[in-house]
Design brief:
Layout (H helix, E strand, L loop, with lengths): L10 H23 L7 H19 L4 H14 L5 H4 L7 H18 L1 H9 L7 H16 L4 H15 L5 H18 L8 H14 L5 H27 L27 H27 L4 H9 L2 H11 L4 E6 L6 E3 L3 H4 L4 H20 L1 H13 L4 H16 L4 H19 L4 H10 L11 H7 L6 H29 L4
Antiparallel strand pairs: 1-2
Helix pairs in contact: 1-2, 2-3, 2-16, 3-16, 5-12, 5-14, 7-8, 7-9, 7-11, 8-9, 8-21, 9-11, 9-21, 10-16, 10-19, 10-20, 11-22, 12-13, 12-14, 16-19, 17-19, 18-19, 18-20, 18-22, 19-20, 20-22
Length: 498
């Protein structure tokens, strides 16, 4: 997972940035100067910091990592908590799961293992555009369950452009949209598929002392993703039905990003990356699979969980990439072959998201310690009147879908998942379903180019009208609002996630 592309700065964007900075400072100062009555002083000061941080995260007026570090630092300055407590969450083991997953994804991109896998699974030149688009849809969803949604979209987009180049304008737009939508849906499938998933798991572990194993998350996500991918498949079939005649891609001339097809063998670096990725996946899935088969009380299950926490597995998989060779030959006079990754390449991962994760946990911890969480939870209950598990699951999933349309899905999850736990605890119900639903729904940003990086990449081709994206995205958004709550509630109860 490489760092996201930075938007180009314009005078208008700079003006918006300064307005957002002013709003963050103004709201924070207002809450600091005029605290709500009956609040502890530490909670009131934390609320001022939290409100300013939310404004900065939503508007991205500052890099998300900068805000994530500045917010707990400001808490120390204002006397909310000492430094050792304010920054304790940056040592959470799940941060290292982020790190490991990001490094593994970077290795797959560098060695082009992702492109090799895609090329092996694509149909040949004689296939119809519809068949190729559908194949790429499922391939994209599968790849994005382990790799960056943004990188997966960028990888498959050139192939899609070649596949749909001769179709009508509407059919071409739908074909291109599958690169973004399938990436977002596939990212929900595993905890490491996209940051909101891990933010939901972390909120449950940190504030509710609950655990959602890797395998259990996938069991919950699979039926929801299957339903939404099935809906998207129907939309594609309907839109491309009149464009299913066979085409020969060779007539289109050489296309950038063409994927290797046929019997191209794996090279040394790709084999090494596949080994490291396989070790990580087995380590992530094994504890949950054993728990499902043997039961949570089995000594074998407890021993495997102690030995293979997700963060440790992530570090182990990433460390292998600095040992396993990318070539069998010595490089630049070195007595050893070049490893898959050098440290300079590993530093290019998305550290901003990792810091956002730590900063969100830090503010959540302080909210529980100061009593702010109870105050916010009570406020949500009084405003909405919702007090049941079903109602809170529907509420937080709906808000997450809507919020993800105007801000990053990671920021949406960082704000809503702890809030879902806080509110659930106020009424004495399990926070598992509301929190997981909020994390999954945060990835349902299909409506606008600004909703997700994959949407922006596809819109940047100039071949997807905003109206087409909005109309098709609205269908998937509505489907997500309708599908996520019942699926999460039913499956979490069925597998005993409480």
């Amino acid at each position: 997972m490489t760092a996201p592309l930075l938007p180009a700065r314009t005078p208008a964007s700079e003006r918006r940035r300064f307005v957002a900075l002013g709003a963050a400072v103004g709201i924070g100062a207002l809450l600091f100067a005029f605290p709500f009555p009956a609040m502890r002083p530490e909670a009131a000061r934390l609320l001022a910091v939290l409100a300013a941080a939310i404004v900065l995260w939503v508007t991205e007026a500052l890099p998300v990592g900068v805000t994530a570090l500045a917010a707990p630092a400001l808490c120390v300055v204002l006397g909310v908590a000492p430094a050792d407590k304010a920054f304790a969450s940056f040592g959470n083991p799940l941060l290292y799961l982020f790190f490991g997953a990001f490094v593994l994804a970077a290795a797959a991109e560098r060695t082009r293992l992702d492109r090799w896998l895609a090329g092996r699974l694509l149909p040949g030149h004689g296939a119809t555009p519809l068949r190729k688009v559908l194949t790429l849809t499922y391939l994209t969803a599968g790849l994005s369950s382990m790799l960056s949604n943004t990188a997966t979209t960028a990888m498959v987009l050139p192939v899609l452009r070649a596949t749909v180049a001769r179709l009508s304008d509407r059919a071409r737009a739908l074909g291109l949209l599958t690169a973004a939508y399938a990436s977002s849906l596939g990212g929900v499938l595993t905890p490491v598929g996209t940051p909101p998933n891990l933010l939901a798991i972390a909120a449950l572990r940190q504030y509710a002392k609950g655990d959602v194993p890797f395998f259990a998350w996938t069991l919950v996500a699979l039926p929801m993703v299957a339903v939404l991918l099935g809906l998207w498949t129907l939309l594609l079939v309907r839109g491309l039905r009149g464009a299913t005649q066979a085409t020969d891609d060779a007539d289109l001339g050489p296309q950038p990003g063409t994927l290797p097809q046929g019997s191209v063998p794996l090279d040394v670096g790709q084999r090494s990356t596949l080994i490291a990725l396989g070790v990580a996946v087995v380590g992530w899935v094994l504890p949950g699979l054993l728990e499902l088969v043997l039961g949570s009380g089995a000594e074998t299950v407890r021993a495997v969980k102690r030995a293979l926490p997700e963060g440790v597995v992530g570090i182990a998989g990433a460390a292998l990439l600095f040992v396993l060779p990318a070539t069998t030959r010595s490089v630049a006079g070195s007595p050893r072959p070049r490893p898959v990754l050098e440290w300079g390449e590993a530093t290019q991962i998305d550290w901003g998201t990792i810091l956002l994760f730590g900063g969100g946990l830090a503010l959540g911890d302080l909210a529980f310690q100061t009593g702010l969480s109870a105050w916010i939870g009570q406020g949500v209950l009084e405003v909405t009147g919702v007090r049941s598990e079903i109602g809170l699951t529907v509420l937080f999933s709906t808000v997450a879908v809507l919020l993800s349309e105007v801000t990053s899905n990671t920021a949406a999850a960082a704000m809503l998942c702890p809030l879902a736990v806080m509110t659930s605890q106020q009424v004495g119900i399990s926070p598992v379903a509301p929190c997981i639903a909020a994390g999954m729904a945060a990835s349902m940003g299909f409506l606008m180019p600004i909703s997700t990086a994959p949407n922006a990449i596809v819109y940047g081709t100039g071949q997807v009208p905003l109206r087409t994206m909005a109309k098709t995205g609205a269908v998937l958004d509505l489907a997500g609002i309708l599908v996520i709550p019942p699926v999460v509630l039913v499956v979490t109860h069925w597998i005993g996630l409480r």
